[in-house]
Amino acid sequence: MIINISCNFLKEGYVQTENSEGIYYPFFPTASMAIKREDFDSVGGFDPRLFTGEDIDLCIKLQKANKTLWYERDSVVYHQHRAKLKELLKQFYYYGYYHPLVYENHEKSNGIKFFNLKKINVEGEEFLEFSRFLFLPFFFKGMIFLNYWIPTVIFFLLSLFSYYLGNILLGHLFLFGSLFFYYLVMYRWVGLDKLKLRAEMIYVQTLMDIVYFWGGFVGGLKRGMLYMEASARDLSKLKMDFDIDETDESIIEVREFLSSKKK
Question: Reduced to 3 states, what is the DSSP secondary structure of residue 133?
Answer without folding.
Answer: strand
